[in-house]
Automatic annotation (TrEMBL):
<dbReference type="GO" id="GO:0030688">
    <property type="term" value="C:preribosome, small subunit precursor"/>
</dbReference>
<comment type="similarity">
    <text>Belongs to the TRAFAC class translation factor GTPase superfamily. Bms1-like GTPase family. TSR1 subfamily.</text>
</comment>
<keyword id="KW-0539">Nucleus</keyword>
<keyword id="KW-0690">Ribosome biogenesis</keyword>
<dbReference type="Pfam" id="PF04950">
    <property type="entry name" value="RIBIOP_C"/>
</dbReference>
<feature type="region of interest" description="Disordered">
    <location>
        <begin position="380"/>
        <end position="400"/>
    </location>
</feature>
<dbReference type="InterPro" id="IPR039761">
    <property type="entry name" value="Bms1/Tsr1"/>
</dbReference>
<feature type="region of interest" description="Disordered">
    <location>
        <begin position="1"/>
        <end position="53"/>
    </location>
</feature>
<feature type="region of interest" description="Disordered">
    <location>
        <begin position="320"/>
        <end position="340"/>
    </location>
</feature>
<dbReference type="GO" id="GO:0005730">
    <property type="term" value="C:nucleolus"/>
</dbReference>
<dbReference type="GO" id="GO:0003924">
    <property type="term" value="F:GTPase activity"/>
</dbReference>
<protein>
    <recommendedName>
        <fullName>Bms1-type G domain-containing protein</fullName>
    </recommendedName>
</protein>
<dbReference type="InterPro" id="IPR007034">
    <property type="entry name" value="BMS1_TSR1_C"/>
</dbReference>
<dbReference type="GO" id="GO:0034511">
    <property type="term" value="F:U3 snoRNA binding"/>
</dbReference>
<dbReference type="GO" id="GO:0005525">
    <property type="term" value="F:GTP binding"/>
</dbReference>
<feature type="compositionally biased region" description="Acidic residues">
    <location>
        <begin position="413"/>
        <end position="429"/>
    </location>
</feature>
<dbReference type="GO" id="GO:0000462">
    <property type="term" value="P:maturation of SSU-rRNA from tricistronic rRNA transcript (SSU-rRNA, 5.8S rRNA, LSU-rRNA)"/>
</dbReference>
């Protein structure tokens, strides 16, 4: 007998060790698990991961971190190199008081006293302080409590110091300055408080600091603390921050060369003046931003744009200069750069001789006297000669007559019978547009069997005879209708573009410049029809086919060449009017313009009206706009923003508070996106001493002479009689000639129906129209007309001479 096989059981006492489960898998484990496989969900055909997206080993990660650190050090050294060394440029700090009891000069004196520096500080102007402890120079711009002075100083400052009061709140003037400075573009900011040691009891001082910090962070969220000028330690800490902090910069400013004007001299005085009342002026300062080129035009404050004669080195001497030496021009010829033959000229428009000979002969395709219909899209309908194609004649035929039977009836058949209807001789005519259909039931009754009533569903008389009302009755009816329409428009603003024609006015002559569009966004706009009405200088404006590429080209061009930033120079400028010798002291700056930035074009600026503004702004209202280094006076056209296939944008008569639009005008070109400030003139008061008031902000957009701003008007009519989809409309026109002229335009109602004009009725402007559905008696029939409006030219703002 075979031995029995014993069954072996697994040991129940043996336990497998628990595997280590890390919270996060290592890169090596993930790499081993993937085994070179790619996740199908995230894989895209033709895509390839960059080296930074791939899994890097330890050596690659260290090398990448080292390279990033080196690049960051190079960027930091480049940004601070202009301030380094014995002859480095000073750090410009603008001191702006926001309260009526604060003083910018006292604030600068407190900062100097914290480092035991005793320098004279003017009430208004600038002072340069050598901070030996940090081996830096700080140039304080002492600003008075004025809007334009604060904007001019902060526009060129590396640091802005806002001075608050421990006893008074920031009033409306201070908030205007703070908001304007923040909107134009601001670099590093600091906040200080004066008079904190006079707050009693002393335990209230921390709460005052906390309250001021809460207020200033509402406008400047990056503010981390408020310094007390009464504490020497905090003052020294603020000066250390001024000397060691890397400047953040302003993008639009760093794309150009600029200079704070330390000194202005007129070498020839009043004797060296040319016949046009201009002379040479020398401005001295330190070049900042990009390199200063003699071939480019310069914008000097609010004086305007000028050409450079030459750029001369003007280094600071070790010894202190006397007053006579400071006013004298350097005798040694240390010319750094002179303009070449490619220097930009002051011409704002293209020469007239470059225009084509036939540009002024704007002959339209069809003379206005020969046209028989308004322009719809790009075609004049009903303008062909009647002899070439005879119009279709409607005949009076018995109801139910077919096309074959109609050929057997003569044209002189009487229409006095009661069983006749309109019949169109077009074989392809769609019966859907017929006034009545045989299947509609008995003629002369509506669905409810009610008789015809005015303003209610009705039918046309069998004889098609239309009686014009008497002039007295018609005038009374028009007045009553328009009075009711005005009340409705005031209540719900259904028709903001509606106009009313006088009964004695010929609409064809009154609206000769208007045209129709099937679609405002997609219909073709024939620009040849607008040539007779365009401004004289329109064909001479600068046209840019590819704005993005062209702007990049000229902005990159400014990076190469020119006098290096950090060099103190004297710039000789020619052609400056003598009247600017009498201008008062103010922190002025000189900005170098990029190529072509002085030429005029059709500028498009975005505008956002402040929600705090109490009333809407009408188009063509005078505004003062600050765009980068320039201030100009404009009368802009407001239009809707957005991109449309046909580049046609609706004109806006008003810009309401809180709304945004595009402001269009003819003005100087500006490359890139530059922040904008819009001001209006106001009468100075004790509470608001500034003559300007900030009402809106925006950004410069690409200019375009092809952007069409179309003004829309709406003519409305009253549905006098309604028969299903056929309506008799009145009060839109007042003679049959106007009805025939505007016959091609599409009709619409405020409740979404669309239709067209079929024929004129009588001689008082009544007409028959067909719609795509039954309309309500309370509806209003309307037609839209458009014309191109042209922007107005801007002029330069001349600062104190404007006030």
């Amino acid at each position: 007998m075979a031995p029995m096989e014993s069954h072996h059981h697994r040991s129940t006492t043996k336990k497998d060790k628990k595997g280590f489960k890390s919270r996060h898998a290592t890169k090596g484990a993930l790499k081993e698990q993937s085994k070179g496989k790619v996740n199908s969900l995230s894989f895209e055909f033709g895509s390839r991961k960059t080296p930074h997206q791939q899994i890097m080993n330890k050596f690659d990660r260290r090398n990448r971190a080292k390279q990033m650190r080196i690049n960051k050090d190079h960027e930091h050294a480049k940004s601070t190199n202009v301030f380094a060394g014995k002859d480095g440029a000073p750090r410009i700090a603008a001191v702006v008081p926001l309260c009526s009891d604060t003083s910018a000069a006292a604030a600068v004196h407190s900062l100097n006293s914290s480092l035991d520096i005793d320098d004279d500080v003017p009430e208004v102007g600038w002072t340069r302080t050598n901070v030996d402890r940090f081996k830096q120079k700080v140039q304080y711009l002492v600003v008075k409590r004025d809007l334009l002075a604060a904007l001019d100083a902060c526009r060129i400052a590396d640091f802005v110091i806002f001075v608050l009061s421990a006893h008074e709140e920031v009033d409306a003037e201070g908030e205007l300055i703070l908001k304007s400075v923040e909107c134009q573009g601001i670099s590093n900011t600091f906040t200080v408080v004066q008079g904190l040691d006079k707050v009693e009891p002393a335990k209230q001082r921390p709460s005052v600091i906390s309250s001021l910090k809460s207020y200033i962070t509402h406008w400047l969220p990056s503010t981390d603390r408020v310094y007390s000028l009464d504490n020497r330690q905090e003052g020294a800490n603020l000066v250390r921050s001024l000397c060691t902090t890397t400047t953040k910069g302003v993008r639009w400013r760093d794309q150009r060369s600029y200079m704070f004007i330390e000194d202005i001299t007129w070498p020839g005085g009043k004797s060296a003046i040319s016949e046009d009342g201009t002379g040479e002026v020398v401005v001295t300062g330190v070049v900042r931003g990009l390199g200063l080129k003699a071939d480019r035009l310069v914008q000097v404050g609010d004086w305007g744009e000028f050409q450079i004669e030459k750029i001369v080195a003007a280094p600071l001497e070790s010894r202190k200069k006397t007053k006579d030496e400071e006013m004298a021009v350097d005798s040694t010829d240390d010319t750094l750069e002179r303009p070449t033959e490619y220097q930009d000229d002051l011409a704002e428009l293209a020469p007239e001789e470059t225009l084509m000979d036939d540009v002024t002969n704007y002959a339209t395709s069809v003379a206005p006297s020969e046209r028989k219909g308004v322009l719809l899209d790009d075609h004049h309908y009903f303008s062909d000669e009647e002899e070439e194609t005879a119009p279709k004649q409607k005949r009076r035929l018995p109801r139910g007559t077919s096309n074959y039977q109609a050929a057997w009836y003569l044209d002189d058949m009487s229409d006095s019978g009661s069983d006749l209807e309109d019949f169109d001789m077009d074989d392809g005519q769609d019966n859907q547009n017929q006034p009545a259909h045989p299947a509609d039931g008995v003629e002369g009754m509506d669905l409810d069997g009610k008789a015809m009533t005015e303003g209610a569903p009705s039918e046309y008389p069998q004889s098609e005879m239309f009686m014009d009302p008497s002039p007295e009755d018609e005038a009374a009816q028009i007045e009553e209708y328009r009075k009711s329409r005005k009340t409705e428009a005031d209540e719900d603003l259904e028709f903001p573009d509606e106009i009313e024609l006088h009964p004695n006015v010929n609409a064809r002559e009154r609206l000769i410049r208007y045209r129709g569009l099937k679609s405002l966004k997609t219909s073709v706009w024939d620009t040849e029809e607008d040539r007779p009405y365009e401004p004289e200088e329109w064909q001479r404006l600068l046209e840019i086919s590819d704005y993005k590429r062209t702007a990049t080209k000229f902005m990159r061009e400014a990076w190469a060449g020119g006098v290096k930033a950090g060099t103190r120079v004297s710039v000789h400028i020619r052609g400056v009017p003598l009247q600017f010798q009498e201008s008062g002291p103010r922190s002025m700056a000189m900005f170098s313009l990029l190529r072509h930035e002085h030429k005029r074009t059709a500028c498009n600026y975005s505008i956002l009206l402040s929600s705090e503004h109490e009333s809407p702004i009408k188009s063509k209202t005078e505004l003062i706009v600050q765009c980068g280094a320039r201030r100009i006076v404009i009368n802009p056209l407001f239009s809707n923003a957005g991109n449309t296939p046909n580049n046609v944008h609706k004109f806006a008569r008003y810009l309401h508070p809180g709304q945004s639009a595009i402001a269009t005008f003819i003005g100087p070109l500006t490359w890139g996106n530059v922040p904008l400030l819009y001001f209006t003139r106001t009468t100075p008061t004790p509470d608001h001493p500034s003559p300007l008031r900030l009402i809106a902000t925006g950004t410069s957009l690409p200019p375009s002479t092809n952007r069409i701003v179309a003004k829309r008007i709406i003519l409305t009519g009253h549905p006098y009689k309604i028969n299903k989809r056929v309506v008799t409309v009145r009060y839109m026109f007042f003679n049959d000639t106007d009805v025939k002229w505007f016959k091609s335009l599409p009709l619409w109602t405020k409740r979404g129906r669309s239709g067209f004009i079929k024929e004129s009725l009588g001689t008082h402007g009544y007409f028959k129209a067909t719609f795509d559905g039954k309309i309500s008696p309370m509806d209003a029939v309307a037609v839209s007309l458009y014309k191109r409006v042209w922007p107005r030219s801007a002029r330069a703002w001349r600062g104190e001479m404007e006030q």
